[in-house]
Design goal:
three-stranded antiparallel beta sheet, about 15% strand, seven-stranded mixed beta sheet, 10 helices, alpha/beta, globular, 10 strands, single chain
């Protein structure tokens, strides 16, 4: 059923309200079509298709345009955890890493696993104040997965710069709906299967100014695709890595990037500003409705994610009504995106209020 005031138009027709984009986005129709054609092609041309690199390059450019960064600074991969493991290899022995309390494990666990580092946490709203001269790296999500809180990106970036710390920003829960300025961050990572509406197995790592200067850190996870000429990098060590961020590419899953190229094109056509206005208006409507029912939603207005202590039986009632949300840490979490409309908001509020 197409929502009358959604932004997605005929690209989406969820049968029931889908308010769980913070867990995984819906595929647009154009992406499903592209994937079906690629699967058919794989039956004749193999699982690398006729053009293994083309879709990944198109997706790289699409992500770069959304972020406003040059495509040559963007590497492609399969998971945020692998990108984090790469960033972890750049830490010196004894480095101090600062992260927010309760940030997503795929971002922070590979950093915490580095032997000999000092791993510190601080409340998200005090993260900038927690940066100190001994801090080597500040890693944090632009938007928190648990409850939708938005970090003060400018404050953390300024504090890190003042103390000489590097920054590693995760925009998995932000890219696609929240206008972002990646300038001044050393690394920006994104799992694209949520708000960017891409298949799983699609991630991007953008490098900031100066992060690619010289030879840069060695990519221990990279294979033949990271060579300047991949066809000449198939055997033995890669002796001539690509001059761009492609030297940090993983050998990618072709089908994932076929779908990603189409999804990112759709978001590019609509524009992040329009998606932001749409999503936050729906979230604020939901937030106001919860408040009117005596509940205490968080965070403050401005986030596309709304969380609230789960009212008794609400999650079961929503599931029975076919309304997809998530429960995380005792919080009922709803996430609003371009395929949602006001009817989704009102129906969810109606079901929650039945308790």
């Amino acid at each position: 059923m197409q929502r009358h005031d959604s932004l997605g138009g005929a690209e989406f027709a969820p049968g029931n309200p889908y308010l769980n984009t913070a867990s995984g986005g819906l595929l647009p129709a154009r992406s499903r079509t592209a994937l079906a054609e690629a699967v058919e092609e794989a039956a004749t041309y193999g699982t690398m298709g006729r053009d293994y690199f083309g879709p990944a390059e198109e997706a790289r450019r699409g992500f770069a345009r959304l972020l406003g960064t040059p495509a040559e600074r963007v590497a492609v991969g399969s998971s945020v955890a692998v990108h984090s493991a790469f960033v972890a290899t750049t830490l010196e022995p004894g480095a101090e890493v600062l992260v927010p309390e309760g940030d997503f494990s795929s971002l922070v666990n590979p950093l915490a696993a580095v032997p000999g580092i000092t791993f510190r946490t601080a409340p998200l709203d005090a993260l900038a104040d927690a940066v100190r001269p001994t801090t080597s790296l500040v890693a944090f999500s632009a938007v928190q997965s648990l409850d939708g809180r938005i970090a003060d990106l400018d404050a953390v970036r300024a504090a890190a710069r003042a103390h000489g710390a590097r920054t590693y920003l995760d925009v998995t829960q932000a890219a696609g709906w929240l206008p972002l300025r990646p300038e001044g961050f050393d690394h920006v990572v994104c799992g694209a299967f949520k708000w960017l509406l891409c298949p799983r197995g699609t991630t991007f790592l953008a490098f900031g100014d100066g992060a690619l200067d010289g030879d840069g850190p060695r990519a221990r996870h990279a294979g033949w695709v990271a060579g300047e000429d991949p066809a000449k990098s198939c055997y033995g060590p890669v002796t001539h890595p690509a001059a761009t961020a492609r030297r940090y590419d993983e050998p990618h899953a072709l089908l994932s990037y076929v779908g990603a190229a189409a999804s990112l094109a759709l978001l590019g056509e609509i524009g992040v500003a329009a998606v932001h206005a749409h999503n936050t208006a729906l979230a604020d409507r939901f937030r106001a409705g919860l408040t009117a029912r005596g509940l205490a939603p968080r965070p403050a207005p401005g986030s596309a994610i709304v969380s609230v202590p789960a009212p008794p039986g609400a999650a079961d009632r929503l599931a029975a009504a076919g309304i997809r949300v998530a429960v995380r840490g005792g919080l009922l979490r709803a996430a609003f995106h371009l395929y949602n409309g006001t009817d989704d908001v009102d129906r969810a509020l109606e079901v929650i209020g039945e308790g």
